[in-house]
């Protein structure tokens, strides 16, 4: 019988294994990873640079200390995002794997868990093997990034052990809209994006917006997607009808009507009023919508309307919103309140943060807490 079994060899699971072994070198630890390599999703994070954390995270110093112990030095950009100094995500994965090997932690890759039962211990069924463990950590991610092994298995395991699962939805992803944006596809614009629900603002952020054939993308749009949720009782077909998106191409100016009126007074022809203010395809679309009305053109420059019809699916999402209810686990150790010696860490829990290192920070942080908690 193994002392600690960890399902999932990603960011949270690898961190938990290291911290548990360092806390209690005598305990036997086994990591079960469905894919053929540990930490595959880590290698893809931050566009291959691995945005480890953010200076705005409350417990960032613990994370930095942890990675310094692995030989990873970091650098911070002007937005507060923290990266390994080499900006190489593969190096982070390699440093974690090397530490696991040095500590003598057992690893089984290409090992997909079929089911879990709680008897006197945890009975973990693989295809051709049964494993018994005194303590169990479920850290196999959410549903975002199925290519890296995150297919929602952890939700199924947690539910089978009596836990409540908040509905998983894909977030930090592009937004699809009802309007035809094919003529804007590929256009990028520095602007402010605002999400309204029943005409009340629920999210606003500035950044670079990228138009696609079916909608909008970009970091500020990814962050907006966290708030674009189907209301309780609504269906997917009509669940986004009460939402509206507005794009402000001039967030640093209160009024664009007066700007257009001044240009008009200076002799600028009506068909060239928007020239050099926004990129030509955007100007042409606004002109079509405004039908020559200067006031309407100015309004559209400040509040270009889009009707969301959903977000890009699991294959495109960076993070899962939803998961194991946080009220059912200890905040200090991540141990289940319902099942003794059962722990959770990482994206399987109902947490989602904005872009910029917050989600990886949560994986490291919960991995550390769970690892130390299990080792006691």
Automatic annotation (TrEMBL):
Ranges where the RsdA/BaiN/AoA(So)-like insert domain occurs: 172-319
A Pfam family: FAD_binding_2
Protein name, as recorded: Aminoacetone oxidase family FAD-binding enzyme
SUPFAM superfamilies in UniProt: FAD/NAD(P)-binding domain, HI0933 insert domain-like
Residue ranges constituting the RsdA/BaiN/AoA(So)-like Rossmann fold-like domain according to the UniProt record: 61-372
Gene3D superfamilies named among the record's database cross-references: FAD/NAD(P)-binding domain, HI0933 insert domain-like, Translation factors
Cofactor: FAD
Organism: Anaerotruncus colihominis
Entry superkingdom: Bacteria
Domain FAD-dependent oxidoreductase 2 FAD-binding: 3-39
Keywords: FAD, Flavoprotein, Oxidoreductase
